[in-house]
Amino acid sequence: MSKETRPPGITTIAPDVLLSIARLTALKVDGVSRMSAVPGGVERLWQRSHIEDGVRINIEDKTVHADVYVVMDKNINIREVSRNVQQAIARAIEEMVGMEAGHINIHIEDIHYDAEGQD
Questions:
Q1: Chain CA centroid to CA 109, Å
Q2: 31-34 contacts: CB < 8 A, separation 24 or more?
Q3: Based on the structure, what is the number of domains in the chain?
Q4: Tens digit of pLDDT per residue, the chain (119 long)?
Q5: Is 61 helix (H, G, I), strand (E, B) or coil?
Q6: What is the pLDDT at residue 28?
Q7: Is residue 36 part of a domain?
Q8: Contacting residues for 112 by C-beta, under 8 A, at least 6 apart
Q9: DSSP β-ladder status, 63-73 and 32-35
Q10: Ramachandran quadrant class, 8 (left: phi over 0; alpha: psi -120 to 50; beta: rest)
Q11: What is the CATH number of the domain that holds 69?
């Protein structure tokens, strides 16, 4: 069997890869200061969700659903930045690993303000 007629093998994506893609993509969006802790993250590890700093993903039928917990910069449009994060993560998942992006929920946990007296 030649290389051209041989069927390709399969590619599997570890959940940690999806977590990293979501986290790093969110951090690149203007207006996101940093990731926040995932509430109740430790107690849910036994379920089918996978957790990393600021991101929880669930994979159902090759569709990736994500909950993303962020701290936003001050003086930004929260709705616009949230939509930008959702679109960026969905695009990254679909383009980088070829999986469908489902719900990308953004949770704003705080607003980053500099120390008092500084801007």
A1: 15
A2: 31/72, 31/73, 31/76, 31/77, 31/80, 31/81, 31/84, 32/70, 32/71, 32/72, 32/73, 32/81, 32/85, 33/70, 33/71, 33/72, 33/73, 33/112, 34/70, 34/71, 34/112
A3: 1
A4: 556 677 788 888 889 999 999 999 999 999 999 999 887 544 444 345 676 689 999 999 889 999 999 999 999 999 999 999 999 999 999 999 999 999 999 999 999 998 765 55
A5: coil
A6: 98
A7: yes
A8: 33, 34, 71, 72, 73, 74
A9: antiparallel
A10: beta
A11: 3.30.70.1350
Residue 13 and residue 63: Cα distance in Å, rounded? 12
Going by the DSSP 8-state scheme, the letter that residue 115 receives in this structure is S
pLDDT at residue 45, rounded to an integer:
40
Q: Please give the residue range of the domain that contains residue 36.
A: 15-112
* pLDDT for the residue 88: 98
Q: Per the confidence metrics, is the pTM higher than 0.85?
A: no
Q: What 3-state class would DSSP assign to 113?
A: coil
In a domain, 91, yes or no: yes
The amino acid sitting at 118 is Q
